[in-house]
Write the structure tokens for this entry.
Amino acid sequence: MLGEYTIKGRRASDIAADVEAAVGAGKLAPGAALPPLRELAEQLDVNPNTVAAAYRLLRDRGVIETAGRKGSRIRPRPALAPRDRIRVPVPPHARDLSAGNPAVELLPALAPALAAAAAAADRAPVLYGHPPADPGLLDLARASFLADGAPRGRLLVASGALDTIERVLAARLRPGDQVAVEDPGWGSLLDLLPALGLRPVPVPLDEEGPLPAGLGAVLAAGARAAIVTNRAQNPTGAALTPERARELRAVLAAHPGVLLIEDDHGHGIVDQPFQSLSRGSQGEPVTTHWAVVRSAAKAYGPDLRLAVAIGDEDTVARVLGRQSLGAGWVSHLLQRTVAELWRTDAAPAPRVAAAYRARREELIDALAAHGIEGRGVSGLNVWVPVPDETATVAGLVQHGWVVAPGARFRLQSPPGVRITAATLAPGEAGRLAADLAAVLGAGGGGARTA
């Protein structure tokens, strides 16, 4: 069961620490089964309740997972081995289509906005005791959220989408709680949840977003939170349609105690309208606790570590209170830079969205010409289902293309690869599709269209 390793300890904390140290040192491999409670209690000569408490600590810390009668196992990817490490080295002269980055040529120039922010700081330096959020940024965010149909609520500024989501989860949940997540979904989020001691529960999705029946089943089984990507879903490019949003709101309305987090990181780079899940037909919030998050990373650049969010009063108050004891606030230089970009760069947004759409569709059409299915109605990426990720990724490297293996994004969904179409140059899609067809025909396996 554990090979040659012997668990040690007399107290629950000691037993848990011993197992966690063994995982970190590689002595207990991912997937290794732990002994049943009573068996380990007999080995250690302790009360079974002590072992149960140790296993509970390990589960809350994201080190192990428990599957009923199947017992407890070391998590396949514990928090100390992030999914983002499942990467393929990029050989010299190969095209890296794995990183999920926006196209550099479609990002706005930062120098004018940074100069304006710096000039404002020179006129009125931000000192201790200053309000944590820039009023100009808040005004822009509030107008944007309300124009897109989000409920009225309180605003906050944090250091990116993942930071905001983490703070909202920490404000409302406790270790051991289940969280409904899209599958396949954002790899960093799938790492974050067990690191917080939370348990991700997969919800299947199609190009219109999470399947209502799947979300309903997970919520009925006790999930205390749901995280949904409104558009530009990573890695599949799914985007909520009005009909799917109505169906999901009905599911959520039956579970008003669930924390709903809407991740709209695609704001500013997509041409699909925002479909709110938080707002009911009369403008009221669908769930008691909710948040809508928008990041600057894709529209203005990943190094602008900033996101704005709107949410219910109590949740946002908790987040801001905890933030004040740690980071304090997000730099006002960044806040004013993003506000300046938001004010002056709004017009190019349709142009940017159209460029990303053209690059996605060119790749999807080129794949279809070879009988290969590609998915991606919005955002930066195209998802290609394949039976063998390893063979497909390795084969494409031989042709000079590096794509992301689907294992970074999956819980229970079938295998695939993610291709960042955002950085494809005109004409490259045809060559990539032909190379992928050659790889699949040579044994990489592939999901072919009818």
